[in-house]
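Form 7-S
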Amino acid sequence: MAAFCAECARDVEPARVDDATTIAAFLYGGPVARSIVRFKYEKRPDLARPLGDLLWRAIESRVESLRGALVVPVPLHPSRLAERGYNQAALLAQRIAKRLGTRLVVRALERRRDTPRQVALDALARAANVAGAFRVTRPHLVIGQSILLVDDVRTTGATLNSSIAALCEAGVIRVIPAVLAISPSGALLSPAGLS
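Output:
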């Protein structure tokens, strides 16, 4: 695993996704969690390449079922995008679209409300926080299409579910979420929680 040193690679747990609703590369924790926190909060867009390649490994076995699907990242609100300087999901999605040989549609979906960060919220609060937060701005790009929806982490699934609802309402026929990591406990490391 080129994204992790040999010692860290021993602590990386592949996702054992028996839930067919999300493609996930890893369980969230240890070196994976630290990498994602650095990627998102420590101005490390350079991690998109190795992390995107690791996500691709999880997606690769399903390539046939994804032929023709458009790749759409979960969007950040414009104020969060300005603060961070990049959308980590869009950088991962760009890598996946290139490997899949399909179209990346970055601006098909938008976050219309600047929602508080999810990291400190429980499952019910997360769902309420992002309910109705997304909308499709260019339905003509996605109507009748299959979508590979890319994000960095699935915790409770609230963000993905809200994004999927907006896409389906706009006429998308199928949405397959793909994430770098899935949190089995619903808990995430905050930037302050990094050692």
